Amino acid sequence: MSEADADMASQGSDPDDEGLSDSSYQDYSDEDINDYYNYGPDDMEQDDRGQIFDPEAFEYFLFNKEEACQFLDERVAELTQTIQFSPQVSHTIGKVLLQAHQWVLTEVMERFREDSVQLMVDCRILPPPSRAKQVEPPPKQCPVCLQAQEEKDLLSLACNHKFCTDCWQRYFQVQVEDGVATGVECMWSDCRLITTEDFALSILKNSPVTLRRYQQFAFNDYIKGHYQLRWCPGPDCDVIYMAPQPLGRKVQCKKCKTCCCFRCLKDYHVPADCPTIESWLRKCADDSETANYISAHTKDCPKCNICIEKNGGCNHMQCFQCRYDFCWMCLGDWKTHGSEYYECSRYKENPNIANESAQAQAREALKKYLFYFERWENHQKSLKLEEQTFQRIQHRIKEKVMNNMGTWIDWQYLLDAANLLHKCRYTLEYTYPYAYYQEGGPRKKLFEYQQAQLEAEIENLSWKIERAEQTDRGDLENQMDITEKRRLTLLRDFSES
Q1: Exactly one of 232, 314, 327, 424 is catalytic; which is it?
Q2: 234, 483 in Cβ contact below 8 A?
Q3: Cys-Cys crosslink for 271: which of 99, 350, 424, 495, Cβ 3.0 to 4.6 Å?
Q4: Domains of the chain
Q5: Cis peptide before 271 (omega within 30 of 0)
Q6: pLDDT by residue (tens digit) across 128-176?
Q7: pLDDT per position in the chain (497 positions), as tens?
Q8: Which residues, other chains included, contact 311 with Cβ-Cβ below 8 Å and sequence gap of 6+?
Q9: 313 CB burial (10 A radius; 0-12, 13-18, 19+)
Q10: What is the DSSP secondary structure assignment for residue 194, as one 8-state letter?
């Protein structure tokens, strides 16, 4: 099986948006929905360039540090040029304003036009008007070290709390050692004004090591605070993602090959959104010991009871002794798992659970969680097992080419099939956290139907790939088209916009 981040040209169908609301599906039977989604190539939605609609299409760019710095400076320059700032507001003040608003330029400009002074107060650049009016006598000594100082040697922010340069320098060194940069506050006990970058640079100009660390931490704060920027989560990677529309979509680093969700930087997880997958992973971690018993690799054949080990990714199992075909997940007859409906992916709620005891409700909740967790974990294992299938295919192709039984191009369709299987099963894996948290109703019924359709086609594709030598090429490519069509349809209807 190929890596999850393998690039492939997406193919699939995309029906009209009509009928996707809950109310539109209230009276639809399974047959109605099946007829609705039996459309052909002519029904595929296309863009202005004639390209097939891809629900995963996402525009993003990869920046190095210099490019990211330039991008940030351009945003600050755009802000300072658009708004007629008063003289005391510098380039670094613009950074503070943008950082306080996740670098949303329009929001800062709107607030500045409404009340520039209040904006400065809210961003902790200026003290509140009541405190600003207080007139204090000039100090004759530093309040920290209590050493007598000339007034010119005492430095302060807009709050006028003055401290000597040495105390400021030691204070910054301690803050930087703790990883604080853009959030360094005034040293006065009850003052929360923050220091600007130019103020910090003037203090640390004679301490190059601390200055470099401050600039690194400040830059990191700017990246983390920008709604369009993300650090690549790869180990020791300095690549920065920039997405004009910060959606929960897949991004891949060309340097370290890390693939993740742009919004949360976790593994790519559509159709589940970021809060859903965060809740699911937290629940899996909390309940991992409870679910350990379902992690075994062996089950008994439901017909002859011989112990069977799952050594491939496909859930369509055939007993080597009695040749019985059954489903690994539910142990049901595989004949009942046709493409019309794949029932074992749907959890059947107890309609009377609300009237049961608290203990019965707790058992039902655990039963529901284990149902979805088992299928989630099973597809994770299938992905790993199918990687072995991919390696076997590569080895067989190499043998055929060496024996003059065609070229690599002639057998490329087998690798394409394995890549597509990985991509589809990866999507299917994340449909189970989505389904676990989805509320019941017509929309969930539609989702479960599409999930079942996708799962059935994936198992058909996996079965054919594992028997690629006996599978007709046309039959395999047709199965690839059907499977990808099901995947794109589900993502179009249920991934976040």
Answers
A1: 314
A2: no
A3: 495
A4: 23-54+272-494 (1.20.120.1750), 68-225 (3.30.40.10)
A5: yes
A6: 877 654 445 556 788 888 877 777 778 888 888 889 888 999 999 999 9
A7: 333 333 333 333 333 333 334 444 444 454 544 444 444 434 445 545 555 667 888 899 999 999 999 999 999 988 888 776 554 567 889 999 999 999 999 999 888 888 888 888 999 988 887 765 444 555 678 888 887 777 777 888 888 888 988 899 999 999 999 999 999 999 988 889 999 999 999 999 888 999 999 999 999 999 999 999 999 999 999 999 999 999 889 999 999 999 999 999 999 999 999 999 999 998 888 765 555 544 445 667 877 767 776 666 677 778 877 778 877 767 777 777 654 445 666 666 666 666 667 767 777 788 888 889 888 988 998 898 888 888 888 898 888 889 888 888 888 899 999 999 999 999 999 999 999 999 888 999 999 999 999 999 998 999 888 888 777 889 999 999 999 999 999 998 898 64
A8: 385
A9: buried
A10: B
Per the CB < 8 A criterion, the answer to whether 103 and 228 are in contact is yes
Burial zone of 162 (CB within 10 Å; 0-12 exposed, 13-18 middle, 19+ buried): buried
Instruction: Indicate if 330 belongs to the active site.
Output: no
- Angle (nearest 5°) at CA 218 between 215 and 223: 125
272 Cβ contact list (under 8 Å, min separation 6): 280, 430, 431, 433, 434
CB atoms within 10 A of CB 338: 10
Q: Please, what's the largest Cα pairwise distance for the chain?
A: 97
pTM assigned to the model: 0.72
Strand (E) positions, 293-351? 298-300, 307-309, 316-318, 325-327
Q: Which pLDDT tens digit goes with each residue over 25-38?
A: 444 454 544 444 44
Q: Which long-range contacts (CB under 8 A, 24 or more apart) does 261-270 make?
A: 262/58, 262/60, 262/230, 265/230, 265/231, 265/233, 267/4, 268/4, 268/426, 269/430, 269/433, 270/56, 270/427, 270/430, 270/491, 270/495, 270/496
Residue 57: CB atoms within 10 Å:
10
Selection from 392, 421, 405, 410 nearest residue 484 by Cα: 421
From residue 28, alpha-carbon distances to 14, 351, 446 in Å are 19, 20, 9
Q: CA 136 → CA 7, 117, 146, distances in Å? A: 66, 22, 17
Cα 97 to chain centroid distance, Å, stands at: 28
Residue type, 232: C
Closest CA to 173 of 145, 218, 142, 213: 213
